[in-house]
Amino acid sequence: MAIKVMVEDIPVEVKRKQIKNMYLYVKSPNGDVVVSVPTSATTTDINKFVLPRIDWIRRNRMKFLNRDIPKEKTYDEGTSVFVAGTSLTIKIEYAANQYAHRDGDYLILGLRNGHNPERRERVVREFMREDLSRRIERFLPEWEDRTGLKASTWQIKDMETRWGTCNMQEKRLWFNLKLAYMPDEFLEYVILHEVAHLKIAGHGADFSAFLDKYMIDWRDIKKTLNARYAEFL
Asked: Which end of the chain, C or N, has fewer beta carbons within 10 A?
């Protein structure tokens, strides 16, 4: 259950979970502040965690508040969508069965008569999920071979605050569906990042050294991803 508290002049959504540590997020597109806390955390504990980070919160909120909020996509004929970092123009065909496929610079949507924005979005998202699956199936084994680390399984899900997650105990990886929009270099960075977590839990010096060994420019890629991701969505 989530509640709202005020920390100075900033509303903070507090989510209590079965976790050991506290985690703070400033979420797109409106700069909403969310903190995940253990179920036992008190209001004093939450304030002690959030207050030292208040300047960081303000800076990151301003990035969102000063940014033009993208219009909701309707996936109409002639509009564009990014697939693996390439802008494709949507072209609609009327068909008995729904489908989507890429044809050069076009994303062809096969739709029944009477389709609506929600139907078009579902068809596009299904295509994006399948395309991202193919890309992960290509890149993940390569990074597993290079690092000697092997995931037991992986899945795709739509996440708000993370590009990927890793369950070390079960050796299971999750990748954000939004990576379907991103160029390969961003996807490969996230894959390596999550594969590294099969061995290293945190993001300390040993984690950075591991990434340095296999992707020397990962810091630049991460910075570019964080700065440009909204362009592709």
From this structure: N
CA distances from 111 to 82, 87, 102, 129, 213 (A): 20, 21, 15, 18, 47
2 vs 29: CA distance, rounded Å: 19
In angstroms, the CA 139 to CA 55 distance is: 38
pLDDT digits (tens, 9 = 90+) for 140-151: 999 999 999 999
Number of H helices, E strands in the chain: 6, 11
Tell me the β-bridge partners of 100.
109
With a CB cutoff of 8 Å and minimum separation 6, the contacts of 35 are: 12, 13, 14, 15, 22, 23, 24, 25, 46, 49, 50
Nearest of 81, 84, 102 to residue 186 by alpha carbon: 84
State the Cα angle at 163 between 161 and 169, rounded to 5°.
100
Residue range 35-73, pLDDT digits in tens: 888 889 888 888 888 888 888 888 878 776 666 555 678
The whole-angstrom separation of Cα 9 and Cα 80 is 39
Residues 85 and 233: their CA atoms lie apart, in Å, by 10
- Cis peptide leading into 52, omega within 30 of 0? no
How many angstroms from the chain centroid is the CA of residue 78?
Answer: 26
Q: Any idea what the Cα angle at residue 182 is, between residues 176 and 188, rounded to 5°?
A: 75
